[in-house]
């Protein structure tokens, strides 16, 4: 269970300052590294739980705090917080998290995987484009927002996307276009899965009530298998 997974709050250098995050370790103490990137709500209990769930599957999971400890309580507040995080700054802060995670003795892999949701899904793609060979597996869940990069030319990771057919925040036609753009610009192996669900269907604490247990379970199983196969 997530509550039995060793975890701790950590600090690491990034962009000439001290960044913070949540680190979850597997029961065995070591494993492949995964960066978990938050939604626009902030580093919530749900995102910490995602890191714990990955740790329970044998990964060393780090969830960086992009909002400096702030957590939004409604959509307006979340949108305002996201607007104050420039895309380039967010990606650079995440780059510090990658270096920190790869430097941990507990991490057995020479690359890391990334998983992110909504805004964080966009930053998953930006980080993969920025970090090249350091990211071997990237998993965006309905990756939208200002984190989405303009170009995917730098992507070297394999990508598995999870998108929603009933997404009012990011129409499925745009998701199909994003999938094709990544494939064409990066030459990477790209697989997107589409679910008959709304935006944020994986978040069981979503204030809008968009959680869909069946879709979330299938997507999570695919994510874990994909990360196991592609982080080395």
From TrEMBL:
This is Carboxymethylenebutenolidase. It comes from Paeniglutamicibacter gangotriensis Lz1y. Residues 21-229 form the Dienelactone hydrolase domain. One of its GO terms (molecular function) is hydrolase activity. InterPro entries: AB_hydrolase_fold, Dienelactn_hydro, Dienelactone_hydrolase-like. Gene3D superfamilies: alpha/beta hydrolase. SUPFAM superfamilies: alpha/beta-Hydrolases.
């Amino acid at each position: 269970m997530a509550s039995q997974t060793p975890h701790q709050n950590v600090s690491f250098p990034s962009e000439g300052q001290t960044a913070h995050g949540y680190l979850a370790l597997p029961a065995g103490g070591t494993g492949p590294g995964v960066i978990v990137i938050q939604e626009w709500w902030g580093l919530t209990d749900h995102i910490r739980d995602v890191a714990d769930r990955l740790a329970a599957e044998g990964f060393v999971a780090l969830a960086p705090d992009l909002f400096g400890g702030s957590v939004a309580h409604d959509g307006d507040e979340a949108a305002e917080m996201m607007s104050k995080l420039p895309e380039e700054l967010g990606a650079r802060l995440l780059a510090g998290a990658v270096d920190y995670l790869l430097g941990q003795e507990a991490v057995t892999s020479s690359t890391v995987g990334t998983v992110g949701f909504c805004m964080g899904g966009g930053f998953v793609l930006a980080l993969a484009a920025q970090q090249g060979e350091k990211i071997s597996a990237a998993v965006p869940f309905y990756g939208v927002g200002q984190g989405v990069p303009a170009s995917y030319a730098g992507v070297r990771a394999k990508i598995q996307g999870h998108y929603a057919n009933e997404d009012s925040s990011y129409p499925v036609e745009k998701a199909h276009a994003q999938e094709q753009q990544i494939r064409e610009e990066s030459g990477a192996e790209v697989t997107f899965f589409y679910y008959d669900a709304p935006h944020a269907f994986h978040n069981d604490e979503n204030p809008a009530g968009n959680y869909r247990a069946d879709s979330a379970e299938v997507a999570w199983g695919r994510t874990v298998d994909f990360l196991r196969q592609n982080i080395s």
